[in-house]
Amino acid sequence: MPTDGLTLDALTLTQGDFSLSADLTVPEGQTIAVMGPSGGGKSTLLSGIAGFLSPTSGRILWNGQDITPAAPAQRPVTMLFQEHNLFPHLTLAQNVGLALGPSLKHAASPKVADALSRVGLETLGPRRPAEVSGGQRSRAALARILLAGKPLVLMDEPFAALGPGLKQDMLALVDETLRAAGRTLLMVTHDPADARAIADQVIVVEESRALPPTPTAELLDNPPPGLASYLGTSARARSSS
Ligand SMILES: Nc1ncnc2c1ncn2[C@@H]1O[C@H](COP(=O)(O)OP(=O)(O)OP(=O)(O)O)[C@@H](O)[C@H]1O
Fold this sequence. Notes:
It contains nine helices and eleven strands. It is α/β, with parallel strands linked by helices and 241 residues long. Among the domains are: 1-20 and 50-68, no CATH class; 84-151 and 167-182, P-loop containing nucleotide triphosphate hydrolases (Rossmann fold); 199-205 and 216-241, no CATH class. Strands 1, 2, 3, 4, 5, 6, 7, 8, 9, 10 and 11 form an eleven-stranded mixed beta sheet that branches. A hairpin with a 2-residue loop joins strand 4 and strand 5. Helix 3 (110-118) crosses helix 4 (134-148). The protein is globular. The model is unreliable at 234-241 (pLDDT under 50). Bound molecules: adenosine-5'-triphosphate (ATP). Residues 15-16, 18, 36, 38-44, 205 line the site of adenosine-5'-triphosphate. Adenosine-5'-triphosphate (ATP) binds next to helix 1.
């Protein structure tokens, strides 16, 4: 079994009477789209990897090291939710500075200025989240992830609330900045266009299983029956464009 990257070794995750199994490896540095029908277990998978949900069996390894017993903060993992988790009473610089520790003094660090400039927010550090646009809030959340320095980044439909143009811009920025930083990204999305835009491979989550990653074009050009019916005609329309 390869040891570089994320390995889910005979993993079972359980929520109520729902159970998800996974036995797969994600190579370090890759961008992976996580796709599948609603209720299939995509968020359950991310919660297990992040450590919010303890597995009922199996192990989670990062670069060969067993992280299954580690608390979320001790894992090499950071997670971005749709609402981005910015504190409304703090400035963008203070929010980004939290990646360096709980003191608000980190807002003045050159590292925060650098992270803000990498996402195009160099002048907006003093503003609060309510004083910037939705796209700019997404950028601030991405800056915090870049600064946090964790090698594995999880995103659960991160930009669903943005309009299509803005979403594309954010995906391009995520791709550019996380790849440059050598991060491994698992991103839940319902949109095959998102996967085609940035994902090297896709993990399909359906019928209580997370399947091993498959190269994006190969999978979306010829989806297995379960994924094809979930994607409907949209995947075919996009694959021919
Ligand atoms: N806290 C919980 N307790 C019991 N069952 C849960 C809990 N959270 C989720 N489930 C169930 O687990 C299954 C998988 O849910 P999950 O949220 O992982 O799916 P998903 O693929 O992310 O769906 P969606 O695309 O709709 O967000 C569902 O059947 C859901 O009802």
